[in-house]
Write a structure and sequence with these properties.
Length: 196
């Protein structure tokens, strides 16, 4: 087997496994079996299950951030930007629900994983977020929306878009049913009402 292909194969299978199950539910042997290799090769390429997990988590973070860059980069009215951001977040969740579940689950398990977000932020993403903040501040200055910190608004958007995942355990425990995703238009109208 070619070294690069084996290393990539292990990583791709690890991404799949870690997105389906929590870190503690997966053994190095599970990873070896899934990738058609052995534990020695996993240790050779990644040193430990933790390192392989962090590489998998970083891959998912980068994939998620890449999907958001076009929204943040585009120079448009803040309401259009918010609408596109909501659509983009919900579209990503629809395409990659296990990735969103993994990020939420593993960040809850280990909040220090947020450092992997910071370490993997592409420069274009950082610039895009600053552009988003600038658009929000311009809307506040021109009294199109009420005073709100751009970061708080961004957190509110993400929370509303991923409420079914973030609140899943609460709904299961309190109401005995699975949390449902709010429709795009409900999220958008809720945010507009909060901003006016």
């Amino acid at each position: 087997m070619d070294k690069i292909n084996t290393e990539q194969k292990i990583l791709l299978k690890a991404i799949q496994l870690f997105s389906e199950k929590s870190f503690s539910e997966i053994s190095t042997q599970n990873l070896a079996d899934a990738s058609g290799t052995n534990k020695a090769l996993i240790h050779y390429y990644y040193r430990s299950k933790q390192n392989l997990f962090e590489k998998s988590f970083a891959f998912i973070i980068q994939d998620f951030l890449k999907a958001m860059i076009p929204v943040f980069e585009k120079n448009e009215d803040f309401l259009d930007k918010i609408s596109r951001l909501i659509d983009s977040l919900l579209d990503y969740k629809k395409k990659h629900p296990l990735y969103i579940n993994m990020m939420a689950r593993e960040l809850k398990r280990n909040p220090s994983l947020v450092n992997l977000f910071n370490d993997n932020l592409p420069v274009t993403f950082k610039k895009g977020v600053l552009n988003f903040y600038r658009r929000i501040n311009e809307a506040i200055e021109t009294r199109k929306i009420r005073q709100v910190h751009p970061r708080d608004l961004l957190e509110m958007i993400i929370t509303l878009c991923f409420s079914d995942i973030l609140m899943g355990n609460f709904y299961d425990g309190m109401f005995g049913k699975t949390a449902r995703q709010l429709p795009n238009e409900t999220i958008k109208s809720t945010l507009i009402q909060l901003l006016n």
